[in-house]
Write a structure and sequence with these properties.
With 132 residues, the protein is of the alpha+beta class. It has four helices and four strands, in the order βββαβααα. The protein has a four-stranded antiparallel β-sheet.
Length: 132
């Protein structure tokens, strides 16, 4: 999980929209109704595809230089950045049940104090993984 930036080729369409392709990543393309929409869609598809690479354990290719591409008329290259950890938090947020073991005296004390075990575990894991 990491932050990435990849070059994308933007192709203006006759209706004012853009077709967008990331040549370094297989199956990574999208479109947008205008530049703002295209940039937002490009970030989303980039995060989705890289999340897939990470989840599958596939090697993530290094991004090419923007000058490496031969462009057609009106096309241009723009770098698009994404954060797959942020993407995971938004799109992969289902609850997973975990079984754990603690001493009975600790369970009783925590229960009497009204402590939410799930929240404590989440907070501890985020701290341990340096995510907060």
């Amino acid at each position: 999980m990491s932050k990435y930036a990849y070059p994308a080729i933007f192709t203006p369409e006759s209706d004012g929209g853009y077709s967008i392709v990331f040549p370094d990543l297989e199956g990574c393309y999208t479109c947008g109704n205008n530049m703002a929409d295209g940039l937002m869609m490009a970030e989303d598809v980039l995060a989705l595809v890289l999340y897939g690479y990470e989840s599958d354990g596939r090697p993530i290719p290094a991004p090419s230089s923007a000058s490496a591409f031969t462009l057609k008329e009106r096309e241009f290259v723009n770098y698009v950045a994404c954060d797959t950890l942020t993407y995971r938090k938004i799109h992969n947020n289902k609850a997973v049940k975990k079984t754990l073991t603690i001493p009975e005296w600790l369970n009783e004390a925590a229960s009497e104090a009204g402590i939410n075990f799930s929240q404590v575990l989440q907070d501890a894991l985020k701290t341990q993984l340096h995510l907060i």
